[in-house]
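User: I'm curious what two different proteins look like when written out as structure tokens. Can you demonstrate?

Assistant: Sure. I'll show them one after the other, since each token string lines up with its own sequence. Here's the first protein:
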Amino acid sequence: MFTLILMLGAALAASPPPPALDLATQSLLDAGEIVMVSDPGDGATRAMVEIAAPPGRVWEVVSDPDHIRRSTRSVKRLDVHMDTLRVDGIREQRLGYVLKVAFSEVQYNVIRLYDLDASTMTWTLDDSRDNDIVATTGRFTLYPTADGGTLFSYEARLDSGHRLPRWIVNELTESSLKRFLVYVQDVAPEQVHAD
């Protein structure tokens, strides 16, 4: 735990500057709203939310498999295949998900890489395991705010490989994304106040 605290402290010192936000977006974030950012050209689902907890606390929540399991009812099973700190300082998690989607279950596996120096976590599909989807990639980026909180930016792409219209896949990812962000927004500050 002490090593994690030292790593988080060093990472926060090297955090990138937050993105430039227009007044309307900043007003929504200040009001606690999740701001969905659309770019129909690349098929990614993006969102931002402000969280009333420092980045270190947010990392604790988003990297904890128990919190991932509790964040949405669609996670039926989450297996941790590996969780290690590599020699290069990157935390690597290999996770296996089983999600309930409509009337079926979808299984897929991801490799999550936490680069605290860059204040990011990225993921890709783990092709070494069986998956029911063709691809998924994504990124979390955390930016410390002046009031001691965190601007949490989330980006995800999913290719189901099925003949589903793109809007259905986007709706599934957007819906899941919103539930996750609401969960983190609710839980991370509770942990701060519990300390």
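Here's a second, unrelated protein for contrast:
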Amino acid sequence: MMCRVKVKREEYDDKDKTKFWRDWLETRVLDRDLGYRISKTLRKTVDERILETERVNKRLQETKTEVDSALAAMKEMGLDLYQVHAGWGKQRFQDSVRTALNGGEEKRHWLQSIRNACDTILKEVQE
């Protein structure tokens, strides 16, 4: 079959060439405009997500700072949350907290700030 095929070159006259290039330019302009619109939308979406991520990151860093200061205050009072996991035991830790609560106004203040920091952490995690 292939030997019977005659390849014939298409010839364009000047009108066809002009129409071809006009169509090509028009299509190119439409494609470029579509690309600009898509690019603008993507840039806006990415910028919004970056800003939201930065806000969340800042809020989490502030929460971490509060927790770190609360943990440091607890450690100064002889209370270390990590001791519960290290085999110190939950009951012994609770007894230390009760002792600290009965130890004076300053320790109560520290424990209240620790409770506030823990509440803040829980709210941030739940969001």
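A detail about the second structure: The chain has a mean pLDDT of 77.
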